[in-house]
Amino acid sequence: MDAGGKSAPAVRVVVLSRDTALAWIGRACTEAEGMRIVSAPSAFEAAAEILAEPTAALLIDFRAMGRQDIRLLQIARQMDVALLGIGTLPAGLSTDELSGVRLVSREDLPPALARIAAEQLAPAKPPVRLTPAKKPKPLPTAPGRPQDEPQPTEPNDAPAAGGLLTPEELSALLEDEP
């Protein structure tokens, strides 16, 4: 609870699984973490849940996913939802289609969800402001010692702008007579 007596918003996790045990495991490991688990038995329902409210993570039981459900992953990526997968990879799906899905075991599920909750509940860091570099101050000179003044150069002695050769140097290199 915050100072106003309101409870902090729960981090929402959508679980795509036809297995009620997986949703129960998700609930058990997240109740203490301030997470709210929403079960979805189909990819269509999972997509509807992601679009309905802000969602921190989508936990996918690969047994409930097929090739026709790729659009769910695209929607989750567009909504910046963390993707967790559990189980055997579904046949017919390429690694490109499953890009961004973190594979977790049932034992690793609680720490993975806790990390996501910590990331979501952490206060937002203010953006870093970049300031233009300041010109360094000249070093002070010793009292009574005159500062070195730049000596003017003659135009024929100095290289041309951009470090190019003078006409005399160029003709000497090409062995031309001016």
How much is the average pLDDT? 76
Please report the first level of CATH classification, the CATH class of the domain at 11-121. Alpha Beta
Largest sheet: 5 strands, parallel
Please identify the oligomeric state. Answer: single chain
CATH architecture name of the domain at 11-121: 3-Layer(aba) Sandwich
Secondary structure tally: strands: 5
- Give helix and strand order, one letter per element, not per position: EHEHEHEEHH
Rounded to an integer, what's the Rg over CA atoms?
33 Å
DSSP helix count?
A: 5
Give start-end ranges of low-pLDDT stretches: 1-6
N- to C-terminal separation? 88 Å
Shape: elongated
Q: What's the CATH topology label of the domain at 11-121?
A: Rossmann fold
Q: Label the structural class.
A: alpha/beta
Neighbour order of strands in the largest sheet: 2-1-3-4-5
Q: What amount of the residues lies in strands?
A: 5-15%
Verbal overview:
By secondary structure, the chain is an alpha/beta fold. It has a domain at 11-121: Response regulator (Rossmann fold). Helix content is 29%, strand content 14%. It has helices at residues 20-30, 43-52, 70-78, 109-121, 167-174, and strands at 11-16, 35-40, 57-61, 82-86, 101-103. It has a 5-stranded parallel beta sheet with strand order 2-1-3-4-5, sandwiched between helices. It starts with 10 loop residues before the first strand and ends with a helix. The relative contact order is 0.12.
Topology:
Elements: E1 11-16, H1 20-30, E2 35-40, H2 43-52, E3 57-61, H3 70-78, E4 82-86, E5 101-103, H4 109-121, H5 167-174
Parallel strand pairs: 1-2, 1-3, 3-4, 4-5
